[in-house]
């Protein structure tokens, strides 16, 4: 895996949870016009429904994407060229790609329970640092201390109370100081916050390619807004394909030009053996087993790598409009 030397020293106490709390409070305060709902669990935690039994929407998803980044990244929705068939794009920038994308935004906390018929979700956000359950968090060396925290769950179910209590315990907070934001992939808010991971997806592959993470200075990226689908697999496929077939990321790095040039070659999704078909087809071909999918598939279609030390820029990958249209249901 990628090395992180030179990064952990910058985060003696990351403060991610304190940084995000004003955004969480603002989300809750504006829940009515954002078309989201809140409720309390038996143990007192706050559940935010962003698309299960309520509409949610684009703005809710944009704000949740920024919460996933602990308030240290910005998400925007803007239009691209008139010639683009899918003009509306989710743009993302972050001031610390390693800490923000891998330490907070990455959906790396796997949560499951057999209660109430079973529950599974991936958790994203600054609560991951408090829990410290993942190998990636331990490798980054990032720590935090807080009495309030937030976790974003990709799910269309409410978590059972026993799991909610366990999450709070793992994070070292009382359930009353825990906020769980529920974002179904089939919802507009869910689609926005997942596509808002375009830079995070790139950073995770940078790590997998063993590029020195301390040399990544800054990043920006964007990907098209996919039309949601009521079918889970189709909707999941579209959010992935938005990044795989038309996502673009610009990384600013330090180091030798040879390293930057190689990263530009290896980072795009087209470098994967599983590239080319809509993700839903790939997923079904492996019988729904994520572990069998080439992990190097999850990356943007186009990358630009600028070496700040030399001033040279290297590019790799290309968009795939036909595959994107097939995934997004153009003409169906």
Automatic annotation (TrEMBL):
Catalytic activity of the protein: 5,10-methenyl-5,6,7,8-tetrahydromethanopterin + H2O = N(5)-formyl-5,6,7,8-tetrahydromethanopterin + H(+)
Gene3D superfamilies: Methenyltetrahydromethanopterin Cyclohydrolase, Chain A, domain 1 (3.10.340.11), Methenyltetrahydromethanopterin Cyclohydrolase, Chain A, domain 2 (3.30.1030.10)
Principal subcellular localisation of the protein: cytoplasm
E.C. no: 3.5.4.27
Keyword Cytoplasm: yes
UniProt entry keywords in alphabetical sequence: Cytoplasm, Hydrolase, One-carbon metabolism
Compartment list: Cytoplasm
Top-level division of the source organism's lineage: Bacteria
Keyword Coiled coil: no
GO MF entry, a single one: methenyltetrahydromethanopterin cyclohydrolase activity
Leading EC class: hydrolase
Biological pathway: One-carbon metabolism; formaldehyde degradation; formate from formaldehyde (H(4)MPT route): step 3/5
Family to which the UniProt record says this protein belongs: Belongs to the MCH family.
Job of this protein: Catalyzes the hydrolysis of methenyl-H(4)MPT(+) to 5-formyl-H(4)MPT.
NCBIfam families tied to this protein: one_C_mch
Protein name as it appears in the record: Methenyltetrahydromethanopterin cyclohydrolase
Source organism of the structure: Thiohalorhabdus methylotrophus
UniProt gene name: mch
